[in-house]
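Feature request, filed as a ticket because there's no other form

It would be nice if the structure record came with a short human-readable summary line next to the tokens. Right now we just get the raw output. Example of a typical job, pasted below so the devs can see what we mean:
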Amino acid sequence: MGVVHRAKPAMAMVAVEFVFSALQIFIKLALDDGMDVRVLVAYRLMFATAFLCPLAFLLERKKRPPLTMKVVLGLFLCGLFGIAINQNLLVLAMKLTNSTTIVTALSNLTPQSTFIVAILTRQEMVKLGKASGRAKLAGTLVGLGGAMLVTFYRGPEIGFMHRLALTAGGLRDAHAQHGGGGGHAGTTTTAARIVGSFLAITSCFSYAIWLSIQAKVGEVFPCHYSIAALVCLSGAVQSALLALCFRRDSPHWRLGLDVRLYSSAYAGVVASGLAFPLMSWCLRKRGPLYVAMFGPLIIVFVAVLSSIFLDETLHLGMYAMPL
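Raw output as currently delivered:
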């Protein structure tokens, strides 16, 4: 029983990474359907807020401590860095690269970016005189080098991954038959992929800042449902204002019974409404570096899912365009 109890944070983070992997597929389908990046992020957070606020009120109304200005400021910054900036950069990077796998691969920089942010905020000390300090520094440099390799180098195709798509059949074809495909799949240039790659790297540092801030907020406000609800509410307001600055016409905001609604609902209810409280709980239990360590799992999940459902061709180094 003790082993199972100790393994709960690890199991929770594996589940979170799988949920986020499926989210990449839904986002890619919505973008291919022509949905605006900023509108998609705003709707995701609106769905998440609508799901989480009643849940937080019911489950934590008796044990929730009072909100102080310090906590409110921390939650606002969590919404800004962890939601508004991070999600808009990540989805825009996916649109520019036209690939879920390359963006997800670059998301593996999360542990390195978290380590760098921890050093800058003096939460972590690098002791080069010790083997552990040298190993941390070497791992950070290797991770940054790998990100540059993924961005600029395109190696041979990994054939067996592509054969998965040919065996299982692509979700892209079914999506196109139901009226999808109003987007821009297959039109991305090399320059756009490079810009998108650097946006994905920037989103990792935004995510790392969020982990650092939320870990501190969780120490004085230990209610993970309430934290998730208030962070999503803050991010929803910020993202909606950003989206309205660029897209005020109703066609961009209209949702029907199509992939735009399904993607927004999954992103909000499952990927935010269920995954964020789990992450908040793990942050409080084990800290930001523990949560960040599970980031590399997502590349394995997304590589398989995108090859099967999006028919993406996987290469060593830069990823090829979807067929």
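Something like this underneath would help us a lot:
Residues 2-32 form the longest helix (31 residues).
The longest strand covers residues 154-157.
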